[in-house]
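To whoever is on call:

I kicked off a structure prediction for a single chain this morning and the downstream step that reads the tokens threw a length-mismatch warning. I double-checked the sequence; it's 247 residues and nothing unusual in it as far as I can see. Pasting both halves so you can look.
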Amino acid sequence: MEQTVTVFDTETDGSNASTCRILEIAAIKFDIEKGPFTSATYSSFIHTDKEINPESSAGHHIISSDLEGAPLLAVVRKEFGEFCNQSVLCAFNSKFDFEVLQNNFGFEIPLTSGLCIMRLAQKMYSSLPQFNLSYLRYQLKLSLDCPRNERIAHTALDDAKIASLLLQETWKDYTKQQKAFKKEPSFEHFRNLCWEKNFITLCPFKKYKGIEWSKIPSDYINWCLNNVENLSEDLTFTLNKVLDGRR
């Protein structure tokens, strides 16, 4: 089975996907079976005349002078679109990055047409206490055979590389799981699995952080449902499922 995927990452001037500008974008294109080691890569800064705020620079270390002489947005938009052609688009947090692409490049890509690598990790490794990319890299021992200064680098291409390795790891574990149940692994099933609601095993909130939801009092679970702002669909699904099991 051949399935070409493109894993991309962006560095932006803010954390609001609807208003932030892309400063850097990178992507890795590869066959999910073969992995990203024999892959094609794309990486580019994007020129802007606007100053980058210090809060953003503190995260990705991009400053305005880095973008001097960089290609214009329209050029990068065309190059990136051509690079990703005939592949399934993937990102670590696709809900954010797909919206960023739409608002900066005008690409209207249905979320469920691609893959969210973070959701796949939550599906395959549900007992882990957290799911940020750096933690998953060290937990799963992805690309640690490099000097420390390379491990702590934070560029769009570096993050795309780690996300690519994580995607391949989830694919390999999914394949093993399917074969253990004498089922044929398929990319379409893998993609559908990605968008099914995730049961989040451990509580991420301070009072009971790291404790299984099944061991947490119903009063606290109800409090979370009624009071936590912007509770994710997965957590809402999890909490309701725990409460339903107690009725």
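Update from on-call: the warning came from a stale cache, not from the record. Cleared it. Sanity check on the structure: The longest helix spans residues 156-180.
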